[in-house]
Amino acid sequence: MAALPLFDAYPRLAGALPRVALAQYPTPVQRMEQLESALNCGARIFVKRDDLSSNLYGGNKPRKLEFLLGKALQDKRRTVLTFGAAGSNHTLATAIFARQLGLHPIVMLVPQPNARYVRKNLLASRTVDAELHYSGSMPGVAANTLRVLAGRVLREGRLPMVIAPGGTSALGVVGYVNAAFELRRQIEAGDLPEPDRVYVAAGTMGTATGLLLGFQAAGLKSQIVAVRVTDPSLTSMSTARRFFRKTGVLLHAAEPAFPLGAFPDNAFQFREEFYGGEYARYTEEGMRAVRLVHDAEGLALEGTYTGKAFAALLADADAARGKTLLFWDTYNSRDFTNDVKDVDYHTLPKPLHRYFEEDVQPLDRVGD
Ligand SMILES: *Cc1c(COP(=O)(O)O)cnc(C)c1O
What we know:
This protein has about 375 residues and is α/β, with parallel strands linked by helices.
């Protein structure tokens, strides 16, 4: 297996960081020519296909989980516990890859607006026998988590590894520092010109921040446009600064040649106007972007993350004549409809049944 581009640049990191290979690299870069014609705006538009990052479950989570689950194995944990909203892509990805590595996945869920993907993700969690807990509030999650952790210590004699929401920790973010070096290699190979701007959905901000740190270290000049899709208490400039520093410190400590630079304000644009007021609440602009990309390129985005991020790219496209824009596709595109079609939602914890018994939100109709 070829070394990660980050490890090629800083060989000492390979020995210093825990990692288990989960993903297939490099993910392709493609030009969106049909979309360019449809928009007729004179910008070159490319997409980085992280939706294809793994055959098991793609999107942006495998890059982080390679390091996080690598650490779980290194520490000889038997169980991992993580958090998310009811339809979380992160908790599903964690459950799938943990199971594959022989670890028991525990997932602490909180409410979110209903959508068809919520149902699909919940059923898929059942197929890997994830242990699901659902709480109606944040204090509820905290109390439940303590109870579940204590139960595990009694049974296994050791604590589960707790993985942060979105997989965003100093270590998880390294996956996207590597992704920046992977992109540089694709630029050097002529797959695309160096982008003027890179658009990415920002939840816990691990993806955007890892790219920012990686671009700085790799000498890429592209500006990151991070499009906020979750609550400001989770997604903010201070979150970006914090993880930029933490991951930088981690890498610099493991390999002093890794540069510890200042937060590059000019290379980071934080966009908040596409949020729509609530996490996972679809917006008209976001769903228009989903339809446009689907009709022009056959690529499946969604309303919670990537549709909102692509809406930002569309809003900028008219003023981007002659520029190169790269959209970083963070959504899994592996279709698991067949795996879940025989799973009965009644096998889920009872409070989760509401996602199957209540209507989905009105804007969730693309692809019907
Ligand atoms: C988790 C997720 C994100 C957000 O990534 P962060 O690193 O948490 O900012 C973006 N897009 C999709 C599809 C996701 O599942």
